[in-house]
């Protein structure tokens, strides 16, 4: 079997990536730099790739984080390039910040801190002012309150379970809840049959879904009107999932007690009872390292063996290497007779298939085939010429 590491691969970084992740790519097999020509892959965090001219040599893009709004997903998918992310790697970091946000809102901590920082005079004067002013910051405790969690992925599940540990009632909504996440979720979490039901029964609502067309303005005026008075909205997911105009109006009318968000804007910063943080959700050393390690491992497995795990635009595909085999990996449109044409091309070259796998996701599919001898370049060109084939790699 050919050694997949004999070719030194070139990795372009668009942001500073945690060393713990880059160390997963051995320097004897990988060249990594922020300026590098003809890269095989790109690793980034928050850099905007939409206006970037992506070299023809790029085979994969890996984001050391969860969201991929900064990546031209459709353009890359059309070229058969998987986009990897790190779902769940920053889940604990975000969970901790959500819990902190709930406490900040419930106990009026930010307002109380501002008040205390503005005090002056001697100790006796300050003590008197504290006793006189503290009543205006009376808050409420979390046990017994109901938290509505929209989105029960890696982060949402951890938030829901932590809230239960704090004595809160928890109601969750996620029509696409996976079996894996369901096993992780506390059995005490109630299922909401609709978003309207969740809002009508929740004292606090936190969102943990990606920003796509169907989730934009999930928190809107109509749903805020369903909440019990003095509710709290928390948004540590993405800007755009919450309708800021609707939230500001609910705060002005007294329906909402507070809005805690990781996405400041001029209007939000000027409003009372808005706690706006500078996108701190995943800003811990541990989260950055976890994300970098996850995407580096998955990127390496793809480049060396063709396996796909945690790609947002391609199916998960893993095929153990057949002994003494040579592998080809094919990204293609999800259309009929693709496998038949590929196997026919291999048969014409008298290549014996030892093992193969094919999986699809939406409009794209991915195939790996292990054969008993090296695949000649003319055969690879034949496969590349099949209508619907996006790219072919010999590994």
Characterization of this structure:
With 395 residues, this protein is an alpha/beta fold. It folds into three domains: 1-89 and 282-314, Rossmann fold, CATH 3.40.50.720; 91-276, Rossmann fold (3-Layer(aba) Sandwich), CATH 3.40.50.720; 322-395, Alpha-Beta Plaits, CATH 3.30.70.260. Helix content is 33%, strand content 20%. It has 14 helices and 16 strands. A seven-stranded parallel beta sheet has the order 8-7-6-9-10-11-12, sandwiched between helices. A five-stranded parallel beta sheet has the order 2-1-3-4-5. It has a four-stranded antiparallel beta sheet with strand order 14-15-13-16, covered by helices on one side. Helix 3 crosses helix 6. It is elongated, with a radius of gyration of 26 Å. It starts with 8 loop residues before the first strand and ends with a strand.
